Amino acid sequence: MTSHPAWRAIAARLDGVPVSKRVRGGDTPVLLVHGIGPGTTGWLNFSRLIDLLPPRCAIHLLDLAGFGASGRLPAPPYFDVPLWLRQLELALDDILGTYGRPPIVIGNSAGGALALKFAARRPELRQVVAAAMPWGPPNAHLRAFWRSPRDVAALADALRPMTAGYDDPDPEVLALRLKPFQEGDYGAYFDTMLADPDSCAGRLELTETEAASIDADILLVHGREDHACPAAALISGLLPRLPAADLVLMGSSGHSVCSERAADIARLVKHLLEKVTAP
User: Whose CA is closest to 226, among 248, 201, 206, 246?
Assistant: First the structure.
């Protein structure tokens, strides 16, 4: 991070909960929305992609309420899709006031589902990228990932199916993801948040009414070897609701497509940036 402009922290509160946003560089805003998992943060989801984006990108990096540097919700439901959408709206209003233009929104996994729901609510949005977006009832791999890890070995077991080749996770990533569970009662908070995975997945689903309300250009990016959220479910369930959306299936990639294929996603974003500034 030292070779880039410094990050600026933007302090805000939502229903009394402190919500974290960091901003770096540029004049063309890009809003990054992370997924839902043990120890997930904006930085852990997007660090490889961020370092490949052009300097012109003004990167707005969120930690959703309940994750990372943001505060916890004071009472259930902790899996609070309406509140997270209001957090995105808070970020959007700040971006519109600062740049006079909407951002490119990039959502990863559950963050991709939030990004599509966000586009249905806010017609100002013109370009949305939903990467590794889940669809349908969670399978065994996603259920294992949506569970508080009892130790570093259990966390590693949950992370391996997130990659195409069931790779061993980076020890630094393991340490960062495990840290919240070693402090206080965050494990109980996380397990309460995801106590009913089917209900959580249902709350993320883009309804037909929402899909019909989207005017933004939608790009879906998915790993062909996504074991946690198989592409087939997305193709059969979501694509019929988004007939104008583009879909890019990336080989040699699992659910961690924003890391495994970061350079290729960066090239797609550069193409979107060219459309932003086209006369």
Answer: 248
